[in-house]
Amino acid sequence: MQPLSTNRATVSPPAGADQPFIAARFACLALATVCFSAAAGLEGSKMGQPLVAALPGTLAAAALAYRAKPALALTPPLTLDDVSIKEAPGKGEGLFARRRIEKGEFVMDYLGEEMDDAAVNERYRDLIEARYLLGLRGPLGLDQTWVDAVNPEKSNLGRYINHGRPASLRKVRQRFPDRRLRFFAARDLEVGDELTFDYGDDYWLGRENELRE
Ligand SMILES: C[S@@+](CC[C@H](N)C(=O)[O-])C[C@H]1O[C@@H](n2cnc3c(N)ncnc32)[C@H](O)[C@@H]1O
């Protein structure tokens, strides 16, 4: 887990920061395709053998390609130089752009206290009280890690991002090397635009009356 305090670093990320990851993904896929084609093109009538031989490498390259985007090092997260915390009518406080944020730019992760089911049950008798709690499912949805950003001292600016639909941020769920939710700009944001992500329908069950899209 990264440091949890609100990030006030002054470094601003360059625009279009997720383009290298898209390039990496395509490069890996291209490599996988080349390996596969080379193996499949080997002489002989037993096509099955080279195909089987190429399979592990192809799968590994495809997995790497799939994971490359979120797992590679990113530009620094946005700070209070780039965004501000302001009143968002009907939603409490929210996060707003202080400068133009370009589509594809890395915004930040959702950081907070990492908890297991037992810790969550101990903290909250009813999950409706858990307004800053995010569940990150593992492979096949078998286990779940919780991130609770209720404490501003143990979370980051991600806790101020309100729900929106359509959202101005795109979510990327990272599972490797650690589990986290990352935000990228889904479109160009102008100064004053609100940063939002889609919380999902489940979040609003029992809270329907509060919702302002
Ligand atoms: C993670 S917090 C977001 C930051 C919060 N607005 C604040 O002031 O700290 C989630 C809570 O914000 C409010 N909220 C977020 N998006 C909303 C929306 N679209 N409509 C109404 N309330 C919203 C709800 O109270 C929700 O439980």
Automatic annotation (TrEMBL):
One of its GO terms (molecular function) is histone H4K20 methyltransferase activity. Signal peptide: none annotated. Residues 76-200 form the SET domain. The chain crosses the membrane at residues 20-42. It comes from Pelagomonas calceolata. This is SET domain-containing protein. It comes from the Eukaryota. PROSITE patterns: SET.
